[in-house]
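User: Sequence recovery, please. Input:
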C-alpha cells in the first residue's frame, strides 16, 4: 500500500468545522469575501479577517496568501490560506481547458502547499477550488487537485496530512475514485 494514502483524507462537510492547522479559502482576487466557501470562512473567522485582508492588496489568480484564522482559532485552526482559482473558460462538453485553466488551478494547490511547508503546518484542508461559482468541471478539478497533492507529499514532509473537504457526498465520491486511481498508478 502506498504510504501516502495515510496522509490524505477525503471528507464531506463544512470546511470551517475541521480540526486542522489551516483551511484553504477559494477566494477572489480582492480577498474581501464573497459567497460559497469564501463567505462561509469570512462569516466564521469574523470581521477581523476582512479588516486584515483590506491591507493585503489582493491576490492574483493561481497564487495564495496566508492570514491568521481569527475567530476560528479557538477550534484549533491556526491559519487561513486564501487562494484564487481560475474561472473556467474551457468547453464543458469537450472537457477542453482554455487559457491554461489547468495550470492556474494546479498553481493554487502548489502555492498553498508551499505556504503550509514554510509555516511547518502539520495539516491543511482544501475545498474543491474553482468548482462552484468559477464553474471548473469537478472531475477535471479533482484530478488536478489529487495529482498535485500526491506529487507534493511524495517530495515533502510538510504538511503531514492533507484533507480534501467536499461540500457534497457526490463530490467526495469523485475525489475518492480519483485518489484510488492515482494510488494504484503509483504502485500502491
Ligand atoms: N465548506 C467546504 N466546501 C464548500 C463550502 C464549505 N462551507 N461552501 C462551498 N463549498 C464548496 C462548493 O460546493 C464548491 O465545491 O466549495 C467549492 C468551491 O466553490 P465556491 O465557493 O463557489 O468557490 P469557486 O468556485 O472557487 O469560486 C470562487 O466564488 O464565493 C465566491 O468570493 C468567491 O469570487 C469567488 C468565487
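Assistant: Recovered sequence (188 residues):
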Amino acid at each position: 500500500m502506498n504510504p501516502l494514502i495515510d496522509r490524505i483524507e477525503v471528507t464531506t462537510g463544512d470546511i470551517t468545522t475541521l480540526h486542522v492547522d489551516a483551511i484553504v479559502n477559494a477566494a477572489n482576487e480582492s480577498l474581501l469575501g464573497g459567497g460559497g466557501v469564501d463567505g462561509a470562512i469570512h462569516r466564521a473567522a469574523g470581521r477581523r479577517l476582512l479588516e486584515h485582508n483590506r491591507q493585503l492588496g489582493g491576490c492574483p489568480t493561481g497564487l495564495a496568501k496566508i492570514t491568521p484564522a481569527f475567530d476560528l482559532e479557538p477550534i484549533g485552526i491556526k491559519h487561513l490560506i486564501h487562494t484564487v482559482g481560475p474561472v473556467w473558460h474551457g468547453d464543458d462538453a469537450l472537457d477542453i481547458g482554455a487559457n491554461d485553466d489547468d495550470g492556474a488551478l494546479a498553481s493554487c494547490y502548489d502555492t498553498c502547499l508551499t505556504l503550509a511547508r514554510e509555516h511547518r503546518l502539520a495539516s491543511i484542508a482544501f475545498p474543491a477550488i474553482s468548482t462552484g461559482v468559477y464553474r471548473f468541471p469537478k472531475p477535471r478539478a479533482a484530478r488536478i487537485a489529487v495529482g498535485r497533492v500526491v506529487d507534493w507529499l511524495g517530495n515533502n514532509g510538510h504538511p503531514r496530512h492533507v484533507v480534501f473537504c467536499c461540500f457534497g457526498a457526490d463530490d467526495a465520491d469523485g475525489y475518492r475514485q480519483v485518489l484510488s486511481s492515482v494510488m494504484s498508478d503509483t504502485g500502491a
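The longest strand covers residues 22-27.
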